[in-house]
Amino acid sequence: MRDQRWYIRYNIEGMANLKSKGADPSGINSDLIDISYRGFGAWANKKIGVGQEISFELMTKLWDEPVVGKGEVKYVQEVKREQGSVFRLGVEFKEIDKKTLQSIINYLVQNICAEAKKKAT
């Protein structure tokens, strides 16, 4: 099966607060998994349906302020665990500050290159 990803995904640690219309107004806290130019992946304790439009705040140690924007849930996979189910979400960006996103990805790439250089020496 052909991989349908358009952009490289970069692993990232952090949190994502997701809010969808008609859902819990406090939002759904989730753990960031990865980020790309097109969107991000997260683990959530609550399911959000495919096609659902959301607003989000992405938070990580890499930057001081949350990155806010809007997106659409494109992928949901339920994973059953002893403590209950968690959901692997794929969110496509619809509105996000492109300069901030570019800065984040540049930072991640620089760190990847620095780590590879360390291992090579």
**N-to-C order of helices and strands:** EEEEEEEH
Query: What share of residues is helical?
Result: 10-25%
Name given to the CATH architecture: Beta Barrel
CATH fold node name: Thrombin, subunit H
> What value does the Rg take, in angstroms?
15 Å
Give the CA-based shape. globular
- Provide the CATH superfamily: predicted glycosyltransferase like domains
Q: How does the major sheet shape up?
A: 6 strands, antiparallel, barrel
DSSP strand content: over 45%
The end-to-end distance, rounded to whole angstroms, is: 37 Å
- Which whole number gives the mean pLDDT? 88
The number of distinct structural domains comes to 1
Report low-confidence residues grouped into runs of 5 or more: none
Give the spatial strand order of the biggest sheet: 2-3-4-7-6-5
- Alpha-beta classification: alpha+beta
Compute the number of helices: 1
